[in-house]
Structure formats: C-alpha cells, structure tokens
Amino acid sequence: MDVLTDSDVKKYQDDGYLVLEGFLTEAECDALRVRMKDIVEDMDVPPHCRIQFSTNQEEQLKSQGSADYFITSGDKIRFFFEKGVFDDKGEFIVPKERSINKVGHALHAYEPLYKSITYSDKVQGLAKKLGLASPVILQSMYIFKQPGIGGEVTPHQDATFLYTEPLGRVMGLWIALEDATLENGCLWFIPGSHSTGISRRMVRTPKGTFPLTDFVGREQEYEDKLFVPAPIKKGGLVVIHGEVVHRSAQNCSSDSRHVYTFHIMDSHDTLWSPENWLQPTEELPFPSLYA
After folding, report:
1. Nearest-CA neighbor of 229 among 257, 259, 189, 261?
2. Fewer CB atoms near the end CB (10 Å): N or C, the chain?
3. How many domains does the chain have?
4. Distance between CA atoms of 52 and 60, rounded to whole angstroms?
5. CA-based R_g, the chain, Å
6. Is pLDDT larger for residue 155 or for residue 59?
7. How far is Cα 45 from Cα 59, in angstroms, rounded to an integer?
C-alpha cells in the first residue's frame, strides 16, 4: 500500500523528517488511547521501580541510566514517570493516570492493538517505498506529554541511543493520537541536520559498573532559529530519520499530547551496536516488519 508519493520520499531524504496528515483514523487513535487507559489503570509499579524520565544528560544517568528497570525494558511493558509526581516515600502525589511520561518498550510485541498498527499494510508500504530491504522493529513507546507537567525533550538525535554501523539505518514513526500543537509540545526539527553524523552516544558500561549506561561525547549546541515546528493533527504521522536533530517543549497547556511511536531499523548489511542500551533478547529478538 503506497502512502508516500515520490515527492514525499524526496522531502524525507532532503529534510530528514516528513509530516503526513491522516495516517490513522480518529477511531483508530481513540482505540489506542482507550487501551492505554486500561493498561495504566491496571499498572502496579513497586516504589523502587518508579523511574522519573528525563532527557537531560545528567538526570538520565542518575535515574533511568542507572536503573535495571529501564535497561531491561526492551522486551517488556514498563512505566516511566514525570518529575515531581512522587513524595519522598515514592507515593503518588498526583492521580496516577496523570503521572506517566511514557510506557515502553515492547507494546508492538505484546499488545494486539498496537501490534496491528505497527505491522499494518500502511507501515509496510511506507517502509518499502523508502527502500528498506529487511526492516525490523526495535522498540515502541506510548508518550503522554501530560497537561501542565509534560516534560521538555531537549535537542537530540535518535541515533545517540539507537546506534548502527553504518549510520542512517534507523527511523522513527511518530503517530499523533491527539492534535500536537505549538501550545502542547509538538515536535521541532532542524531540516537537513541528518547529514552531519552524531556527536554523542549513550552506551552500556562494562558489567558490574555503575551507572549502567554512560554518554560518550556531548550534544552540540543548536541555535533556536534553526528549528522548525511540525504541528500535526490527530491521526497524523511524522517520519523521523535517526540522525535528524529534533526536540519538543514542555507542555504548559491544559491539553495532553498522546503519541504512539516506534523505531524501525533496516537490518540488511547493518551492525546493531552491542553497546546500545537496547538489545534483542531470547524472549524478543527484533521482529521483522515484513514477516
């Protein structure tokens, strides 16, 4: 199924990202949100596993970077929280459904509704149109961007966390389950920034050392004026090259910005770094998109 035109492909290749309205129907978006509401209602996270998610480098190493709960989440469905939602005993001080930053990283494997979207004819058609020979699913996430407290995502490249040799083999599919606006934290990109490589990597540290991950290199400084906003309506899709620089602001509005997102790698002649935090497991090898 062709969901991309030749001009779409060229725009993606030139800019490093592509905004496609109307990828999912309103009903499909609503079904994904209802299912996640049920998942959150049923969640039971022990206090010592209540990890506050951050994209700040120091905070990453302090929280999820040093947490087994995070680093072993690639083949599980786990819960990561916003800052300031727990008291000093690890108890919720906001309603738990308003506390979550994201759920990850294997919704595509264990949740039938999310699996059906991830492996849909539309997604397969898009991958084929972009020339992916042997795509596999790396991870999936549901991101909440909670009203009022949804945290800023600082400028970054996905390849910092999902590193391959050669580079350029990973892309993200980011589906808006609600309108993503300038007010509630839509994505911003530096067009064309996917052609200059990466300056920072998150790597696993040697076994027995702490924290469990570290960063090699530093994120570059980027001028604000280089970023272009990418607001998108409910049901829209943003295709994100693994090396394009992007960010999103804190959500200071009264509207949430729910998203289902997952990453694909073309595994043909590609080396997945054994130093990446995310690793395939016996329980969940990276599954083929075309299978």
Report:
1. 189
2. C
3. 1
4. 9
5. 18
6. 155
7. 21
Residue 59 pLDDT: 52
Residue ranges of E strands in 129-258: 135-143, 153-156, 164-165, 170-176, 187-189, 200-204, 213-217, 228-230, 237-241, 246-248
- pLDDT at res. 64: 45
DSSP 115: H
Establish if 285 belongs to a structural domain: no
Q: CA–CA separation, 125 vs 131, rounded Å?
A: 10
The position carrying tokens 């264990």 is: 110
State both tokens at 248: 């999103």
SS3 45: coil
**What is the distance between the alpha carbons of residues 80 and 50, in angstroms, rounded to a whole number?**
7
Helix, coil or strand: residue 70: helix
Q: Which domain holds residue 106?
A: 6-272
* Residue % of the chain over a pLDDT of 90: 79
Top-confidence residue, 91 or 276: 276
**Cα(284)–Cα(195) distance, rounded to whole angstroms?**
32
Residue 250 maps to a domain: yes
Q: Is residue 81 part of a domain?
A: yes
Two structure tokens written together for 114: 């999310």
Tokens for 254, please give them. 């009264």
Asked, for residue 133, whether it belongs to a domain, the answer is yes
Query: Do β-strands 213-217 and 135-143 pair in parallel, antiparallel, or remain unpaired?
Result: unpaired
Q: Which two tokens stand for residue 247?
A: 């960010």
Interval 140-156: pLDDT, tens: 999 999 999 888 999 99
pTM beyond cutoff 0.90: yes
